[in-house]
């Protein structure tokens, strides 16, 4: 199924694709004992050749130890051979011991697969403030190479290994034609709570077999992140561990992608689609969530202003609570618009819930309350805000705020 168009190529979704579909990549996962359950809690992605790499990271001042390790690895030359990930423990706020443990994870896995340590990235997710049970991690790392494979089951095992409170795995794969050659872009992510990124998501991983340099990949990854992962929120909390890493094996044998390449926009559109699918999956899977909520802002003074307004509306606890209760309370929406700190003409705002107009030129419109109730009971709610000022636009995604969110987070550590 064609999902979008570039300048000279179309990207298509690969229904059975996984993080291992791009040429050169293997993945896997297993249970090493970091989680109390028997769910996988240690996983890895490995590339058979040095892959051009890029990363974006949390802006939280308290950054987990794996962030520093991964920054160092990618910064050493823009090349990665692997990323190793654990769930069940964030290795955050764990001092010098946490740093040592993250570096040991890197060196142990590098030795296990026979690559330089500085070509391995590390990521962790889970409870903050507890040191890793390194005896279990070491045992898991020793077993992990045998679990690595280039098939969808291995991709699924990796997806399962990175989950915490997530209810479902999050993955997507597309094909796009570059220089007449089929190349693939795949992504996997995790995230359900502590989601209000200023970089990416809690954890996200992208693989591609396209030929693209690390600098061009880094620039594109930041641009795409700002339009996707940075436009979601579940609870307004930015994690200590947020990280998005992209790896390009270059095995598709296309001409190197850069901004002057005729198919660059096609590749960019495909990458944006992958990241948007993952971002929306995180928002839909928000802790306790029953609905995906989308906010589209149009007519703002700039795209940046529209982004700020859309994220303010999607992040409003009052708006989120109203959506959960199927209450067409547009007053909460316009209040959020007005406190976003962006230019707004208080006389020209329109608001719609789906096709139901509730406000026109900042004046209430009589609408069918029963129809609004039925719309808000659905599993996807779209809020449209038109400021009628200029051409700025943006879309943000989030979820409703439910009783279950409080229940989950009231006992997260126990």
UniProtKB/TrEMBL annotation:
Record-annotated active site: 201
Subcellular compartments: Cytoplasm
GO cellular component: cytoplasm; ribosome
One record GO biological process: L-arginine biosynthetic process
Enzyme Commission code(s) on record: 2.3.1.35, 2.3.1.1
InterPro entries: Arg_biosynth_ArgJ, ArgJ-like_dom_sf, ArgJ_beta_C, Ribosomal_uS17_CS
Keyword Zinc-finger belongs to the record: no
Catalysed reactions, as listed in the record: L-glutamate + acetyl-CoA = N-acetyl-L-glutamate + CoA + H(+); N(2)-acetyl-L-ornithine + L-glutamate = N-acetyl-L-glutamate + L-ornithine
Top-rank lineage group of the source organism: Bacteria
Binding site for substrate: 164, 190, 201, 287, 409, 414
A GO molecular-function descriptor: L-glutamate N-acetyltransferase activity, acting on acetyl-L-ornithine as donor
Pathway participation: Amino-acid biosynthesis; L-arginine biosynthesis; L-ornithine and N-acetyl-L-glutamate from L-glutamate and N(2)-acetyl-L-ornithine (cyclic): step 1/1; Amino-acid biosynthesis; L-arginine biosynthesis; N(2)-acetyl-L-ornithine from L-glutamate: step 1/4
Site location (Involved in the stabilization of negative charge on the oxyanion by the formation of the oxyanion hole): 125-126
Alphabetic keyword roster: Acyltransferase, Amino-acid biosynthesis, Arginine biosynthesis, Autocatalytic cleavage, Cytoplasm, Multifunctional enzyme, Transferase
HAMAP family in the record: ArgJ
Family: Belongs to the ArgJ family.
Job of this protein: Catalyzes two activities which are involved in the cyclic version of arginine biosynthesis: the synthesis of N-acetylglutamate from glutamate and acetyl-CoA as the acetyl donor, and of ornithine by transacetylation between N(2)-acetylornithine and glutamate.
Subunit (UniProt): Heterotetramer of two alpha and two beta chains.
Identification of the protein by name: Arginine biosynthesis bifunctional protein ArgJ
Organism: Paenibacillus nasutitermitis
Gene name of the encoded protein: argJ
